[in-house]
Protein: Small ribosomal subunit biogenesis GTPase RsgA
Amino acid sequence: MTIYSRADLGWRHHFALQCGEITEPDAARLTGIDRDRVSALSPDGPLVLTCPQGLSTGELAVGDWTLFDPDSHRIIRRLEPFSAIKRKAAGREARTQLIAANVDTLGIVTSCNSDFNEARLERYLALASSAGCMPLILLTKADMAEDPDEYRHRATALSPLAVAETLDATDPGELSRLSGWVGTGQTMALVGSSGVGKTTITNGLTGASDLTQDIREDDARGRHTTTARFLKRTVSGGWLIDTPGMRELGLADASDGIAEVFGDIEDLAAACRFNDCSHESEPGCAVKAAIDSGELDPERLKRWDKLKREDRYNSESIAETRARARSLNKLYRGGSARAKEKRRIE
Ligand SMILES: Nc1nc2c(ncn2[C@@H]2O[C@H](COP(=O)(O)OP(=O)(O)OP(=O)(O)O)[C@@H](O)[C@H]2O)c(=O)[nH]1
Ligand SMILES: [Zn+2]
Structure:
C-alpha cells in the first residue's frame, strides 16, 4: 500500500489555518462519494468515513479535505476548499451541485479540428474563473492538424488568463510537458466534449498502474473491497479528479467568471452613455463604436450576450427556487402552528 504525506495529498497552509491550535489534525482527502459512503485518503492510508448528523454527502465533493475522528471514522467537519467546481443540478429544481473541490487547474480539453469552438472555450474559461481554478486549454490532436499553432493563438486570444498547449495526447513524451501542472500535491480536473482525448490524457498522466488496482480498503463488514476511485494519482506526484459529474458541466452562478473572461467588453459597456445600454442602437454606445472601428469582434459580443443571458436565467431560477422553498416553509410552519393552536383550543 502506498502511503502519502499530507503534502503529497495536496494539504497546504489554507487548510492548516482552519485547524486553529491543532498542529497534527486527523485530516483526510475525499476520493469518492457513493450515496452515504465516503472514501478518503489520509497519511495513514485509505479509509471509509461516515457523515455526522447534519452533514449530507451532497455537501461534500471529491477533492474535499475533512477533519475526522480517528476512532469512529466519523467526519468532524469539512474544511473550506480553495476552489469548488459547481454545476446547475439536473431536474426542474434549480440547485447547484458540487462536482469537485480543491482543484488547482481546470484542464479544458478540445482538439485542433472542428471540435474547437470559441464559445464553448469561453464558457469553460468563465467556469474555471468562478470556481477559482487556473484554466489550461489543452489542444489535442495537434499531430493531425495542418497548423496547430493557429488554434493555440485563437485560444489564447480569448482571455488574458488563457494558457494553451497543443499536443498529441497519445504520445507519452508530449504528455510529460504537462507534469508541471500536476506536480506534488497539485490537482487537475479535465472538461471537454466527448472524443477530444480526456481519457487518453488521464491514462497518460496516471501511467499504466491505475490506482483502482492497487488500493484496497475495508468496507463496513471488514471485508476488503476495491471501489472506483475518482481521485487518481499522476506519475508526477499530483492528482486528477475524474468523476462522472466532471464530464458534463454547464454554467451556474458564473457571473464573476464571465466578467473576468469578457473584461474587455465589460470595460467598454461601462463607458456607454446609458447604464442599461443594450449595445444595439443607443447613442453614445462604446461597444458599438468598438465594433465599428474593428476593435471588437461582433461574434465575441454575441457570445458574451448569450452567456450572460444563460447565466442570468440559471441564477434567476436558483433564486426563484429558493424563494419558493422559503414561502412553502412558511406555509408549513404556519399550518402546523395553526394545528397546534386548534389542538390547544379543543
Ligand atoms: N492522433 C491523436 N489521437 C488522439 C489524440 N487524443 C485522443 N486521440 C484519440 O481520440 C479518440 C478519443 O479519445 P478519448 O481519450 O477516448 O476521448 P474522451 O475525451 O475521453 O472521450 P469521452 O470518453 O467520450 O468523453 C481515441 O481513439 C484516442 O486515441 C491526439 O492528440 N492525437
Ligand atoms: Zn452600449
Q: What stands out?
A: Residues 209-228 have pLDDT under 50 and may be disordered. The first strand starts at residue 27 and ends at 34. The chain is about 35% helix and 20% strand.
